[in-house]
Design brief:
The protein is of the alpha/beta class. The protein is built from 21 helices and 15 strands. Among the domains are: 231 residues, Rossmann fold (3-Layer(aba) Sandwich), CATH 3.40.50.300; 58 residues; 92 residues, no CATH class.
Length: 672
């Protein structure tokens, strides 16, 4: 799906009818590799209005209370237009579906003289590919409308595709909430698989009920009684298992919280004076070794480094002269027999004698015939001036001289400077470092919770096999019921359908398990790859885990200690959340545009450039970025000029109190 156009008609800060072209043609996306639309302006110019307008046109009041709705939409009509007598405003969003249908979605509000909303009207028109005519529909049933929209861009996917860049960290902070888990399940397709399995079991139960009613009661009595007893036994055990699973989840959460508290203290311990002083001593030793290695390397190779370009130039010149000499010698040797023959021939007395011109012609013609008859390969080469008179020994000596690249010395210098910088930083840390913190209490909690968790898992290991045996017995009874049903030919088709549905349930269950594992691994791999791409510190994380059962991400350093995500900086949290969105986008079958408000404000230039070059340019076919002037640097402008297809400036007029959408963002922004 792609967004094509957004039209405001006296909505909020946008006076009159103003529009933004958002569509990026396929050849631009594929051939020119441009997938970004940039809208920029000062705070208050209407960037967030664009994002919220898109969300509301698509999803309406979902996720919003009636009080919140009245608060948000009591003043959406443009003030200037209202003062002129206007009493309605609208937002229109045009999209192109994956089937290349054009959908025009419009929301229109009507107001009374006190600027209160009196009515909200939704309209939808659809134009088929290649058609000039639209099919119009007025939306009276909002539930039907919501289901219709969810076919193209599901509501649960919105937080991952349309969001405020500065609030993106909430995705990680809410990663273990039930709402987040449900959203990820739906995006990855796991929810659909589970619903499919439930539907199949429901169909199976229907077939079993039909067969049970079809049998003779006298023959069915024994099986029916045993079936009921087993079903009651299985039901009770299911409740016990569910309760144990709930307790297991609780203790897992308590262990996680205790570890997080302990890890915070461990992190503080890692910054204690004792630890930092050890690191300082280690870095000091490493710096001295690097300086010694540098001095030795420079003393041994200084001449070669300084003269490397001249030595290489001399080698090249000598090689050209040597190649020329070899070619010349080979040429001369191939004609030596002919020239000996001609000297003997022309040494005889000829009557009348030949002129010098005739002798020259004779030699030239004879040489051509000699070359042709003996099939001599004549080489053409340019005459060069030989300026070096070297013996073979001298030539070999010069060619054997090794030169040392400047890069080796530069890398050593850079390493020394980095170590010196790190030592200065550690010195500052020593001054500010806390004392060691005791973690014994947290470790005791973890041990207690782990012990209780082990007891629950042991009970589950005991109960689950019994449950499996009971289900197997029930299956056997149902098979007996099915066999008895063969006595009644009128139900043979139902029996066959039941066989098919049992096989399908078995295959589907196996498929769900394998697919879930594959999706979890895919999310893990894509998340890890993008995280390492975006972060400046490439060795920041030693191990990354993504658990599809709890839908949580855990980071560990190179010593295996868990790193608390909540303690990362706002910029780092944004990069981690971006990596998760990347992974979920890649594992999903959804092809959706991204709309992001202020995505780069908290990032330094390095991470900002990486996010544009390695993330947004590869994320999807259409990325709409709403940017503030505080994010604009010369580097940012250059990157965006290369990557963006369209740029717009949201120009707010202080005197007229409304915003005008203008083309060419970079023409309006002055970059220092």
């Amino acid at each position: 799906m792609l967004l094509k156009k957004l039209v405001f008609d006296s909505y909020k800060t946008y006076y009159g009818q103003q529009s933004v072209e958002l569509y990026i043609p396929r050849d631009i996306r594929e051939k020119e590799n441009k997938n970004i639309i940039l809208l920029g302006g000062l705070n208050g110019a209407g960037k967030t209005t664009i994002l919220k307008a898109i969300l509301y046109v698509l999803f309406g009041k979902r996720g919003m209370s009636e009080v919140e709705y009245k608060k948000l939409f009591s003043n959406v009509i443009n003030n200037t237009f209202f003062d002129e007598g206007g009493r309605s405003c609208s937002v229109t969003l045009i999209i192109e579906t994956d089937r290349e249908e054009e959908w025009k979605l419009q929301v229109k509000w009507y107001f009374d003289n006190l600027k209160r909303v009196t009515n909200e009207e939704r309209n939808l028109s659809i134009k088929a590919p290649g058609s000039k005519h639209e099919r119009h529909a007025r939306i009276d049933n909002i539930e039907a409308y919501n289901k219709f929209i969810d076919r193209v861009i599901p509501y649960h996917a919105a937080p991952f595709f349309i969001f405020d860049g500065e609030e993106i960290k909430d995705i990680i902070l809410r990663q273990e909430s039930s709402e987040m888990r449900a959203a990820i399940q739906k995006i990855t397709g796991i929810e659909a698989y589970k619903i499919l399995l439930e539907d199949l079991n429901s169909i199976k139960k229907g077939y079993e009920n039909v067969l049970s009613k079809a049998l003779d009661t006298s023959k069915l009595g024994h099986f029916q009684k045993e079936k009921v007893e087993l079903e009651n036994e299985i039901s009770k055990r299911e409740k016990t298992i569910a309760k144990l699973e709930e307790e297991k989840t609780k203790y897992l959460r308590q262990i996680s919280e205790a570890k997080e508290q302990r890890n915070k203290k461990v992190l503080q311990n890692s910054k204690s004076r004792e630890t930092i002083i050890k690191n300082q001593a280690k870095l000091t030793t490493e710096l001295e070794l690097e300086k010694q290695n540098y001095s030795k390397l420079f003393l041994e190779n200084a001449t070669n480094i300084i003269l490397s370009s001249k030595i290489n130039k001399l080698k090249k010149s000598i090689q050209i002269e040597e190649d020329y000499k070899k070619k010349k010698i080979i040429q001369e040797m191939s004609l030596t027999p002919y020239r000996t023959f001609m000297e003997q021939l022309l040494d005889r007395t000829l009557t009348p004698p030949l002129s010098e011109q005739q002798l020259g012609q004779l030699k030239q013609i004879g040489e051509e015939i000699w070359v042709k008859e003996n099939k001599i390969q004549q080489q053409s080469f340019e005459e060069i001036k030989e300026i070096h008179d070297l013996s073979t020994k001298d030539s070999t000596l010069i060619h054997g001289i090794r030169t040392t690249s400047y890069d080796l010395i530069v890398s050593k210098i850079n390493r020394i400077e980095k170590l010196e910088h790190d030592l200065q930083f550690i010195e500052q840390e020593i001054r500010n470092a806390p004392e060691m913190v005791d973690t014994n209490e947290d470790n005791d909690k973890i041990d207690i919770f782990t012990k209780k968790l082990g007891e629950i898992e042991l009970r589950l290991k005991t109960i689950k096999p019994k449950q499996a045996i009971a289900k197997e017995k029930l299956s056997t009874i149902m098979n007996n019921v099915t066999r008895l049903s063969q006595q009644n030919n009128n139900f043979s088709d139902i029996k066959k359908s039941l066989d098919y549905i049992n096989k399908l349930i078995k295959i589907t269950t196996l498929y769900i398990g394998q697919t879930t594992n594959l999706k979890a691994q895919f999310i893990h791999d894509e998340f890890s790859k993008m995280l390492n791409t975006l972060f400046r510190k490439q060795d920041e994380f030693g191990k990354i885990e993504f658990d599809l059962n709890t839908y949580s991400i855990r980071l560990y350093n190179d010593r295996g200690q868990e790193i608390s995500i909540n303690d990362r900086s706002a910029g780092e949290m944004q990069m981690i959340s971006s990596a998760l969105i990347w992974a979920l986008t890649k594992v999903s079958d959804l092809s959706l545009p991204m709309v992001i408000d202020t995505p780069l404000g908290r990032l330094d230039s390095y991470h900002r450039n990486h996010l544009i070059n390695h993330y947004y340019k590869e994320l999807c076919d259409q990325v709409i970025i709403l940017s503030t002037d505080t994010e604009i640097t010369k580097e940012y402008v250059d990157l965006m000029k290369d990557s963006s297809y369209r740029q717009y400036m949201l120009d707010y007029n202080e005197n007229k109190k409304y915003t005008v959408i203008r083309d060419g963002y970079f023409d309006f922004v002055g970059v220092k």
